[in-house]
Amino acid sequence: MISIIGAGPSGNYLAYLLAKQNKNVHVYEDHKVIGAPIQCTGIITPELETLIPIKKKFLTNKINQAKIYSPNGNALHVRFQKEDVIVNRTKFDSCIADMAKKAGAKYHLGSRFEDNVGKKMKINGKIIKTDALIGADGPFSRVAKSNGMWCDRQFVTGNQVTVEVDCDPKLVEFWVGIGLFGWLVPENESIARVGIVSYVHPELYLKKLIDKRCPKAKVLSKEPGAIPIYNPKQILQKDSVYLIGDAATQVKATSYGGIVHGMKAAAVLARDMKHYQKNCRKEVGRDLYLSLLLRKAMDRFSEQEWNNLIALFSKEKLRNVLETKSRDYPTKFILDLIFAEPRLLKYGRKLLF
Ligand SMILES: Cc1cc2nc3c(=O)[nH]c(=O)nc-3n(C[C@H](O)[C@H](O)[C@H](O)COP(=O)(O)OP(=O)(O)OC[C@H]3O[C@@H](n4cnc5c(N)ncnc54)[C@H](O)[C@@H]3O)c2cc1C
Question: Which residue among 3, 146, 227, 280 is best mutated to probe the pocket of ligand 1, counting the most ligand atoms within 8 A of its Cβ?
C-alpha cells in the first residue's frame, strides 16, 4: 500500500499516475472538500498541457498578454504565442482527484496525518500500516517534520484578494517593486485576483497595490498563504518516505508558482521511486535552483535597475524571447535571453553581490 498525504495538485497527480500502474494507492486529505479553501492565483503556463489535458470544468480564463510595470510607471507589453491558463483551484484539484479515483486510487477526506513511526502512521488518532509514505502535504508538511526531513525551510507570503474591477480579460498585469512583485490576474472583464508576494509586511504591500490599481474595488474573497522558498539541499527521500510539491519546497522562486513543478516531481517519483531524489534533482531541481539564483539577483535590484531592465526588455529581440519561449525552464530561457541581448550579462554580477 502507498499512502499519499495531501490532495493538492502534486498528491492527486501522483495518485493518478501510480493508480494507473495498478498500485494500491490511498490518499489522506485533512480537509473535507478537495481544493478548498483556495490559497492560490491559479495561473499556469502552457506547460500544464504536457501533464494533463486542459478541461473546461476547471478553466476560468486564458490570457495571452502581460504588462509588466517598472517602478517609474513605464510598462513592458508582451504578447504570448501560447496562452497561460487561469484555473479555479477547487475545481482543478478535484478534477485531478477524479482522474485518480477513476484509475483506482482510494480517497479519505477529513483524514489528518499526525505522525508516523517507520511504516506505522497515525491518521485521526488511528494507526494505519503502509509500505510507502508520500508527503504531498504542502508547505508546512507534517510528513517532513515527522521524518526529520524539514531541513532549513523558509517562506514568503502570498497575499491575495479577489475583487470586482474593470480589467482586460486577456491581460495579466505585474508590478515589480511592490513587495517582491504584485499582480492582477483577470477571471473576466469585471473580476480579478489581485495579490503580492513579499518576505515581510504582506498586508501593507497588498494595500499599496490596491491603492495604486483599484482603490475602490469591492473585495469578494481573500486567499492568502505561505509559499516555501526552494531549498536545493532539501531531503526528498528517506527510507520509504518521499516528499513532493510544496512539501519538498519545489516552487519556482522567480514567479513563486509551484503547480507545474510539483506535478513534474510527482511524475518523476511515479516513474522510479527508488531513484527519485537523484532523478528529481536533475530533472526538476536544476531549473528550480536557477530560479532561486535569479530571485536572489532580482532581490538586489534597485528601482533604477528595474526601470533600466524593463526598458531593455522592451526591445524587440528580448520581447520576442519572452513571447515565444517557455518560462518554466530558466536553464534554456536565460541562454536565449543572453543570446538575444548580451548586455543582460552585466546584471549577472547581482548574483555575486
Ligand atoms: C497567494 C498564492 C498564490 C499562488 N499562485 C500560484 C499560481 O498562480 N500558480 C502556481 O503554479 N502556484 C501558485 N501558488 C503556489 C501553489 O499554490 C502551490 O505551489 C501548490 O498549491 C502546491 O501544490 P501541492 O499539491 O504541493 O500542495 P498543496 O496545494 O498545499 O496541497 C497540500 C494538501 O495537503 C493537505 N494537508 C496538509 N497537511 C495535512 C495533514 N497533516 N494531513 C492530511 N492532509 C494534509 C492540505 O489540506 C492540502 O490539500 C500560489 C500560492 C499562494 C499562497
Answer: 227
Tell me the CA–centroid distance for residue 9 and ligand 1, in Å: 8
All domains in the chain, ordered by first residue: 2-38+89-153+231-295 (3.50.50.60), 43-88+154-227 (3.30.9.10), 297-351 (no CATH)
18 vs 336, which has greater pLDDT? 18
Phi, psi of 169 (to 5 degrees): -70, -10
List Cα–Cα distances, 94 to 58, 89, 91, in angstroms: 9, 8, 5
| 188 has a pLDDT exceeding 90 | yes
Q: List all residues 6 or more positions away from 57 whose beta carbon is below 8 Å from its beta carbon.
A: 91, 95
Show the cell assigned to 40. Answer: 492560490
Non-local (6+) Cβ contacts of 324 within 8 A are 81
> Could you identify the residue written with the cell 501522483?
14
- Count of C-beta atoms within a 10 Å radius of residue 105: 26
Q: Whose C-alpha lies nearest to ligand 1, atom 51?
A: 40
Summarize the confidence of residues 192-213 as an average pLDDT.
98
